[in-house]
Amino acid sequence: MADVIRLDGVEKSFVVRAKTGRLRRERRIVRAVDGISFAIERGTIVGYLGPNGAGKSTTVKMLTGILVPSGGRIRVAELDPSRQRIELARRIGVVFGQRSQLWWDLPLGDSFDLLRHIYRVPAERHRANLERFTEVLGLAAFVDTPVRQLSLGQRMRGELTAALLHDPEVVFLDEPTIGLDIVAKAAVREFLAEVNRERGVTVLLTTHDLADIERLCSRLLIVDHGHLIWDGGLDELKRRYGQERTLVVDLEEAAPPLDVPGARVTRVDGPRQWLSFQRDETSAAELTAAVAARARLVDLAIEETQIEEIVRRIYAAGA
Amino acid sequence: MAELRALASIYRRLIGARIRAQLEYRFSAGLQLLGTALLTALDFVAIALIFANVPELGEWDVAEVALLYALATISFAFADLAIGHLDLFPQMIREGTFDQILVRPLPSLFQIVAADFAVRRVGKVLQGIAVLVFALVALDVDWTLGRVLAIPLAIVAGAVIYSAVWIALATVAFWIVDAIEVVNAFTYGGSFLAQYPLGIFARWLQGLVVFVVPLAFVAYFPALYVLGKDDALGLPEALRYASPAVAVATALVAGVVWRNAVGHYRSAGG
Questions:
Q1: C-beta atoms of A101 and B99 within 8 A
Q2: In this predicted structure, what is the pLDDT of residue A157?
Q3: What is the nearest CA distance from B183 to chain A, expressed in angstroms?
Q4: What is the DSSP string of A168-183?
Q5: Residues of chain B positioned with their CB less than 8 A from the CB of A61
Q6: Scanning A143, A201, A268, B14, which has the fewest C-beta atoms within 10 Å of its C-beta?
Q7: Are A90 and B6 in contact (CB < 8 Å)?
Q8: Do A99 and B6 make contact, defined as CB atoms within 8 angstroms?
């Protein structure tokens, strides 16, 4: 069996009670996940994307055994997450970006030691893993520092180590690079790629950062309104929906929308203008030169396509 | 059995880590400990003041009430040490940190119990022991082996009863996150009830703490046994020996309530 994760028609609905009058309350059923099916092969890195509230974290919570699905069938490492929660917990690793699994008041190294006992990892194995992760992530510099004093980037390295020390078969990462600086982001991506290559760990990654996906994911799953709306590679997605980029220019003074070949102005705000262009038709460099020839340029930035935008385009294309 | 031993060893490590963290601030921990001891000492002063005005309270003299008070206080203090941090539980639900507990390979209730151990609360135990010593010196009791053993047994059973009641009450947070004040009314109010002879309370309250929330088994019934007193309520004598059994039963009920509450959380989604 090569699939380490398998979902068949998985559903999750919540009952939401909303006040409609002084005393009256209305019960409404919200389908957060509405019939999702997919399978993930062992040893792959898959990006799980979607706008906020699309059903991403509800799916991850079902896959990790936190939530019980209201319908359908889930298998992770051949286990039923909702019924075999504790057994599954030994075989997966979880990093929820903003929440820590480390002991706040203790030196980072003490957390690793406690986790060794919680997960019952043989001492020899634990030492070997910790040595390797210390080397790759450069933990030695802050392993004796209390967790509350770590920088966000240092803490995230600690979280990743904590999630991987017990040799999990699958790791679920929720926004692992959120809020990190460029150097720390690169370190995290490098580490994940290496763990995947070296140990064959399967990674399910939810992120808003398209650069994470570009660097790591061979396959993308996109959800919206509880449905899977895309399952495929990044290249194809980009070719179909991700060609458009935006150049933001700050001019010396407010000007009428610039007339630049290969681009159209989508927004003007005082001296700032937003120019959309197709990356296969023109390049940012050409465009910048063209703008500079027409007005005095103070500053510029390139906006990558946001996942929300790609989702909008998938819908637009399907309609 | 091997599983229980493994859990006990993990518990020791987790609690040890929490205590180490608190001792990082030795001075502050010491002050807090002293503070709670003094504050709870005032508690007993209140009872002493009552006896300065009346010789008996519901046919209990000051030494007898001291024993009752000591049993109730020490049990409560141990429960408070072990699971007093349960008052942070609604916050865990609200902030989603309870999810973190569900992805670890340990029972959820075990993790909640092992999450903290507040050293400063040791002060309350010390104060209870001081009152116990006073009671033992002042009492005129015909000590038998049974009566001597009854005291530590009552303390352990009492701590288990308190803990079980708190755990069952804390599950309210799975449904109503901000219910902690209601829960506190029961827990701290409950500790007050157990410190006084049952005979002085209203009938309905007596029924409540004997049959529903069994706080009468924390101190009142064991104290009746040790002192060889008559029960103001006229209940069967067997109840005086029942505290350990009641403790086991309450713990089982709390376990079932917890299981159901977590089941609700996992299907309703926090």
A1: no
A2: 93
A3: 24
A4: -SEEEEESTTTT--HH
A5: 99, 269
A6: A268
A7: no
A8: no
> pLDDT-derived band of residue A197, with 50, 70 and 90 as boundaries?
very high
CB contact under 8 A, B104 and A118: yes
Does the pTM of the predicted model rise above 0.90? no
Three-state SS at A161: helix
Which of A88, A115, A118 is best to mutate for the B interface (most B CBs within 10 A)?
Answer: A118
Alpha-carbon span A25 to A8, nearest angstrom: 34
* B269–A82 CB contact, under 8 Å: no
* All residues at 6 or more sequence positions from A117 whose CB lies less than 8 Å from its CB, including other chains: B9, B10, B13
Which of A66, A68, A106 is closest, CB to CB, to B103?
A66
The arrangement of secondary structure in A3-239, i.e. its CATH architecture, is 3-Layer(aba) Sandwich (3.40)
- Find out whether A222 and A317 touch, Cβ atoms under 8 Å: no
Fill in the DSSP letter of residue A107.
Answer: B
Pick among B7, B11, B103 to test the A interface (most A CBs inside 10 A): B103
For A96, nearest residue in chain B (alpha carbons):
B100
Which one has a higher pLDDT value, A6 or B190? A6
Residue A236, pLDDT > 70, answer yes
Residue ranges per structural domain of chain A: 3-239, 243-303
Measure CB to CB from residue A114 to each of B6, B17, B102 and give the nearest one.
B17
Q: Identical fold at A3-239 and A243-303?
A: no
| B107-161 residue pLDDT tens | 999 999 999 888 878 888 988 999 999 999 999 888 999 999 999 999 999 999 9
A85 contacts in chain B (CB < 8 Å):
102
Q: What pLDDT score does A318 carry? A: 61
